[in-house]
Amino acid sequence: MARKPRLAAGRARALGVPTRGTTNPNRLRRVDRWMTGTLASFLTTAADPLVVDLGYGATPITTVEMAARLRVVRPDVRVLGLEIDQERVDAGKAVASPPLLDFRRGGFELAGARPVLLRAFNVLRQYTEEQAFEAWDTMLSRMAPGGLIVEGTCDEIGRRCTWVTLSADGPLRFTLACKPSGIDVPSDLAERLPKALIHKNVPGERVHALLAELDACWATAAPFAPFGPRARWVESARLLAERGWPVVDDRRRWRLGEISLEWAAVAP
User: Fold this and answer.
1) For residue range 188-220, what is the model confidence (pLDDT) as tens digits?
2) Which of 72, 128, 175, 184 is deepest in the core (most CB within 10 A)?
3) E strand or H helix at 45, and its extent?
4) Model confidence pLDDT, tens digit, residues 112-135
5) What is the 3-state secondary structure (H, E, C) of 62-74?
6) Burial category of 72 from C-beta neighbours within 10 Å (exposed 0-12, middle 13-18, buried 19 and up)
7) Which InterPro entries does this one have (predicted)?
């Protein structure tokens, strides 16, 4: 039987276990760009713009970067980085500038915070599927009313990413993002699927069908290759939408190497 995430030792009773902690500057630039674009109006209208970065890793650089990027959209945004490992919290405290940027020891229980937006990247891969879904429920129960979670995975330099956007009603959208020149086929992103989907990339599952269809669109879009991988990605996204997949974004986002779909398109 799979074990539930344990409570880390200590007064804070942080829920979860430490991640490997690996991170790099600009690793999460693609998801940050998506948040400042797609979620701009959501952030600007939030009554209390508290954003949590959960499990930022051995250094706080990606939290610092996210705070700077979100501040362009919402100058008074407050970003709180949470980590279970106290040494990582201490590293964050060294660059904190409260109340706009702070760091605290915490896990899935969010250390008592009630954010309107939460980013959790490369956090759930070490858990079982059951534990990952439990973590979703735990985090959602701690969010401010109407809050959103962006949970996903990326490679070490942030060129291949996927994520899920969740609300209290459950998963809403699934997004793929990449540097088009860094892939041979779109299904290369399969290795970076979030925990909820990575074991479902098998025949008969929706996410497998999506990646196969996107590869087929990529092949059909081969005549666009002379105009560059970005143009080929845009045409692939257009074809995917044309073939009836519930694509929810447009050419402006596709040009950035993104494609977002309704969660129902990939739901296990």
Assistant:
1) 999 999 999 999 999 999 999 999 999 999 999
2) 175
3) none
4) 999 999 999 999 988 999 999 999
5) HHHHHHHHHHHHC
6) exposed
7) SAM-dependent_MTases_sf
Nearest to 179 by CA among 59, 68, 29, 55: 29
**Angstrom distance (rounded) from CA 61 to CA 41:** 25
> Could you tell me which of 60, 71, 73, 76 has the C-alpha nearest to residue 27?
60
pTM score: 0.92
Dihedral of CA atoms 181, 155, 162, 14 in degrees, nearest 10, equals -160
Domain 13-158's class? alpha beta
H/E segment holding residue 220: helix 206-220
Rounded CA-CA distance 35/33 in Å is 5
Q: pLDDT-based confidence at 21, cuts 50/70/90?
A: low
Q: Report long-range pairs for 161-166 (Cβ below 8 Å, ≥24 apart).
A: 161/30, 161/31, 161/189, 161/192, 162/189, 162/192, 162/193, 162/194, 162/197, 163/31, 163/121, 163/194, 164/194, 164/196, 164/197, 164/263, 166/136, 166/140
User: How far is Cα 136 from Cα 120, in angstroms, rounded to an integer?
Assistant: 10
CA distances in angstroms from 71 to 49, 80, 93, listed in the order given: 10, 13, 19
pLDDT at 262 (0 to 100): 98
The token duo for 244 is: 């009836």
**Distance separating alpha carbons of residues 22 and 125, to the nearest angstrom:** 13
Residue 29 has pLDDT above 80, yes or no: yes
